[in-house]
Specification:
This protein is α+β, with helices and mostly antiparallel strands and 130 residues long. The chain has helices at residues 3-8, 97-108, 113-120, 124-129; strands at residues 13-19, 24-30, 44-59, 62-75, 81-83. The two termini are 29 Å apart.
Length: 130
Amino acid sequence: MPHDASVLGLPGFEIQGTDGVETVVFTVRYVGPVTCPFCGGGKLRGKDRYVRRLRHASLGLRPCYLLLEGRKFRCLGCGRYFRQRFPGILRYRRSTEPFRRQVFTHHHEGISQKTLARRERMGSATVERW
């Protein structure tokens, strides 16, 4: 397993840089294969770039964020536009699956919803939903 995957817990990602003292910010990029989610085609034309800022599982007591550069593509097979999809990160989410699992595990082990929401700086309804 590559070192980057073991640190992040997400396969196919490469760490470009780190920053921060109180909060760790990883600048990462996805190096895995990209295919059209509609037809499965691999002939794509890159159109635009965008950056996503995602909450990630903590390193010790320090909260982590990922700055992830994604791309917008046009499939030459079916002609549809789409934004790049990433393993371990669902569409329209502002957090990774390892972070959601961490919050769930802490709440399941007995940390109250209110305490966990205050510590992770999120709403208590979000903790309840996850």
